[in-house]
Specification:
Largest sheet: 10 strands, mixed
Order of helices and strands: HHEEHEEHEHEHEEEHEEHEHHHHH
Distance between the termini: 28 Å
Number of domains: 2
Number of helices: 13
Helix content: 55-70%
Radius of gyration: 33 Å
Shape: elongated
Number of strands: 12
Length: about 375
């Protein structure tokens, strides 16, 4: 083994410039392929987390900037949807209060069906019920993360904006946090106990988003069409707004997968093809330049397969080393950038093993021809060329 390593090292020293250029091209291609695989794996995990967090059968309609100036949504429109979708979906309206000096976390105003519309898991306490909503009970529920941060417990009295509320339930949201629905670190108040926002009853009944979650496997597409028809009716809230679902969130992820596949995939494929061509050319040149060495080895008893193995081993060492360096560079760069910017990447077994496997295949493919030429060279002819 030590003899083989020495032979490989001496063989590469003969053409340092060619070896260096080939190594760089292969490393660059495998660097791009590693980024592509890590990004694809990260986006796949993000897609799964988004689906889990939002809910595969959940829908949310939010007011868009284009809807400014149009009639605001109101709680009676939420009641209209709930009455007409009974048995098909859980429906909840939500309004976000502007954070101020009294609280530095998201505070939402909603109704008793919010927990079912979001599929929360209760860690402690209980969910709101119809009696709480009808009586205007000053009961609030909060996420487990926020309660841990603030050291709150069930039954504790909380002061928000000069008003006193009792914490009656602690929930654990499913999946990861969503920007449009920051429930991971949030507190919710019943709309019938909303004393924090100034204004008349009409202002307090304002709704920023409508949440729906199908019951019994109700298809989101059908549910959306039913809700759109109801909201298009007079007093139903109009057509302003944007529907958000797991499918719409996944479309954005698929778009970025295509962008990454085109950029990193095209660049990586070009670099790998260039590197493979350079590797094959380097090995062929090495065979021509090392004819006397090959003849001497054969005269000293080296078999054909020993000569072929030498050239194959040189190619494999070069390609595997390029793969390891490219993978290390890609992982280091992504982790370094990820420390400052959130990047969806994941270095799983696939992202680590496929570049190595590709390097081995390239090494074998590019070295078979030159190794065969070197192995079939007659010793006498090789020695005459010395």
């Amino acid at each position: 083994m030590r003899r083989l390593a020495t032979d490989i090292w001496l063989g590469m020293q003969a053409g340092r410039a060619r070896v260096g250029l080939t190594f760089f091209s292969l490393m660059l291609g495998l660097f791009a392929i590693t980024i592509l695989l890590a990004a694809f794996a990260g986006l796949q995990r993000q897609a799964r987390d988004l689906t889990d967090a939002f809910g595969a059968n959940a829908l949310m309609r939010v007011r868009t900037p284009a809807a400014e100036g149009a009639a605001e949504w109101h709680r009676h429109q939420v009641d209209l949807l709930r009455e007409n979708l009974t048995g098909e979906a859980w429906v909840a309206g939500i309004k976000w209060l502007v954070a101020g000096a009294e609280f530095d976390f998201p505070v939402g105003v909603s109704d008793a069906e919010l927990a079912r519309a979001r599929g929360w898991r209760w860690v402690a306490g209980r969910a709101w019920d119809a009696h709480d909503e009808q009586s205007g009970a000053r009961h609030v529920v909060a996420s487990a993360e926020l309660c841990r941060e603030k050291h709150w417990g069930v039954g504790q009295l909380l002061t928000l904006g000069g008003e006193v509320f009792r914490l009656t339930g602690i929930f654990e949201p499913t999946g990861v946090a969503l920007e449009m629905l920051p429930e991971q670190r949030a507190l919710f108040i019943l709309h019938s106990a909303d004393y924090l926002e100034a204004g008349d009853e009409e202002a307090r009944g304002r709704v920023d988003a409508v949440l729906l979650r199908g019951r019994g496997g109700e298809a989101p597409g059908r549910l959306q069409r039913r809700a759109e028809a109801l909201m298009a009716q007079p007093g139903g809230g109009g057509g302003e707004g944007e529907w958000i679902s797991a499918a719409s969130l996944l479309r954005g992820i698929r778009h970025w997968q295509r962008v990454i596949a085109w950029t990193a995939g095209t660049g990586g494929a070009f670099s790998l093809l260039l590197g493979a061509a350079m590797l094959a050319g380097m090995l062929l040149s090495g065979v021509r330049e090392r004819v006397p060495e090959i003849g001497l080895r054969r005269a000293l008893g080296a078999r054909r397969r020993d000569i072929a193995a030498l050239f194959v081993a040189e190619a494999l060492v070069l390609t595997v080393a390029a793969a390891l360096c490219g993978m290390a560079l890609a992982e280091g760069m992504l982790r370094g950038v990820g420390a400052y910017f959130p990047l969806p990447f994941y270095f799983g077994a696939f992202a680590r093993l496929l570049p190595l496997a590709l390097a081995v295949v390239l090494g074998l493919f590019c070295s078979i021809g030159p190794a065969g030429i070197a192995a079939r060279m007659p010793p006498a002819e090789a020695l005459r060329n010395e």
